[in-house]
Every structure is written in C-alpha cells, then in structure tokens.
Amino acid sequence: MEFWAAEGHHRRVPRRHGEHVQQAAQLPRTRRCATLANRDQPAADRFCNGGRMPEFLAEMTAILRKHRPAGDAITVGELPNTPHLPDVLQYCMSARPPRTRSAWCSSSTWLTATWARTGGLTRCPRTWTLSDLRARVGATQTLMDGTSDGWSTAVLENHDQARCAESAKMLAILVARLSGTLFLYQGQEIGMVNAPPAWDVAEYKDVDSVNYYRYVRETAGDDDDDDDENPGALRRARAALNYLARDHARLPMQWNALPHAGFTDPRATPWMRVHDNYPTVNVKRQASEDGSGLNFWRGLDPPNEAVFVFEKMGRSEKLVVALSFIGEVQPVALEGQFHEKARKTSVKDYEEERLDALQPCEGRIYMVEV
C-alpha cells in the first residue's frame, strides 16, 4: 500500500492477508462440521471479520492520509461473508475512530445467486422472483438509514459473478438510479452475456469451475444422462457452470470485430476464449449506433462539457434554462423538457430557435406549464 498509494494507483489488498495468521492462534483446535457429506466445509468464520480488522483498517487509513493528504483516495471493501448489519456498518462508517474520514464502501451484488463456491454451484440454476429482488434492493438502499456518515454502493455485476444482461437497458436504469457510488463492470456497458451453453466444459478456466466439475465427475462417475426429465449429475454440473460460473465475467473485453475482439494481438492466444458474439457486440460498433447499450449508458450520465440545461420549478410553471458554453453548434433534446405542455420563450439571443440544437454560446429561457 505504501508504494501504490504514493504512486497514485489502484491497489487491491488481499482481504485475508494477515487476518488468517492472527486468528490461527485464537481458534480452537477442533470444530463441528456442518455437513460431513460435503468435503468442502464453510470456513468464512475462520478468516473474515476477525478481531484485528479495526487495526488493519486504521493502518490503511494512516497510509492514505500520509500519501494522499488532499483526500483524493478512498478504501472500498467487498464483504462476501458479512451477513450481520453491525458488522457491515463498521466497514461503511467513515468517522468512527480510528478511521476518521476514511470511507469504506460495502457492495452487494443482489441480482445473482449467492456464490458459495461448490456449494453455490450445486444449488443452481435457481429461480428468483421480483419480490426477492425488491427485498435485496431495499436492504442495500436502507443500509445507511439512521447513520450520519455512512456510504454504500450500487453494484450489478463484478468479476466474481456471472453476467446478468438479458434486459441490459432496463437493468441500467435500475442500478444507475440507486443511491450510493455506482460500480460499472467491464463489458456491462455493452451488454456482454454468459458464454454460450454449447461451449465445451474445457473452456471454463476458473479454478472453482475446474475443481467443481472434477469433484462432480469423481463422485458421480459417468452419470451424464441426457434425459430432460432427470438429467445426470455431469449435465447438471454443466448447467450450473453455464448459469453461475465466474468465467463469464472474465471473458476478454469485446473492443471491436477484429480477431480476439481486439483484446490482444491477432497472433496471440488469449487465456480465455472470446465470446462468439463479439463481431456484433463490441465497443466500436456500439459507439456509432443510436440506441446501443453503450450509448444508452452514456445518456444516463452524459459527459457533456458544452451544454448546461436545468429547470427551476414553481407551483404552476417551470423555467427551462438551456446554455451553450462553446463556440460551435451543439445538439440538444429540449423537446423532452416540455412534455407537450404549453410553453413560451422568455429569453433568447438568436432569432433562429431550434429544439434540437443550440447556436455557439447561445442561451435560452422557456416558461413551461406544469
């Protein structure tokens, strides 16, 4: 952290580094296994949320203050094994000693099934209801209620979850309008999806995927029944990988329609296979397509450095103020500000008045009924 904080780069600090060592001396020599039939036992209580976490967080805060005194750095933590609210809040509350003014954001990926390594894969595919989604969104949105200095995040996809984009634009509206800092994962903005079901299981490279499929094969043998009513264990395992494997989020980013989707040199062999749909789903193509997923995201948060449009609301009418700050004609979409209500132009500095463009350094004010 000393090196990366001084250089001003992102640094991912292993969550469990030091934690396991300090806890080892405190843990009992034996423990009761929850499910003896499963060779993989839950162990999160052995290496997460230990008693020295406040000490480690304080150390991280001290390093940030030392190297980033202007406050242009934050700490962001993932809490995959922290189900209890008091534990979550200790990471999210920025002003609690000894971590004064160090923000720690808690992220929840609430649209995908709970990932529990082989256990999680064994339990899927799983059906979720809209009520489940409402409950999870509500939990993240009310997390900071009653606090004075906490902060949360809005997350839909990450590197440890499968893709969720079957209705990418609708989901974009959902997550982009939630409270908290938005994290947009690579490929999410162009609607990248899971690997095709037809891919061979050998295409799954993630260690959890490999170990899970090997485990099923060792315990179930060649049980690969193709009966749709009663599929064999290996077929169910492949369906689970296609549904939830982390590999889906780790396919190469699809930049263009060149070999390997422009991710690497055409002569190279990427570690993971590029999705079959890269010729049509890629950044370059979507950047020039009206209505594409990428441009839809841009519309949700337009990086417009030329035009400033705002409203002032009254009881029976509102002002719509449109201003161009550069010396070139700028496209705008003012019609959407009026919603077919009666309007009149109160102030303008050009005779020509187009609702789809502003002239160089033009300003207008509209009075609109509400």
TrEMBL record:
GO BP term (any one): sucrose catabolic process
Pfam families hit by this protein: Alpha-amylase
GO MF annotation list: alpha-amylase activity; glucan 1,4-alpha-maltotriohydrolase activity; oligo-1,6-glucosidase activity; sucrose alpha-glucosidase activity
Highest taxon listed in the record's lineage: Eukaryota
Domain Glycosyl hydrolase family 13 catalytic: 26-299
Keywords recorded for this protein, A-Z: Hydrolase
Family, as annotated: Belongs to the glycosyl hydrolase 13 family.
Protein name in the entry: Glycoside hydrolase
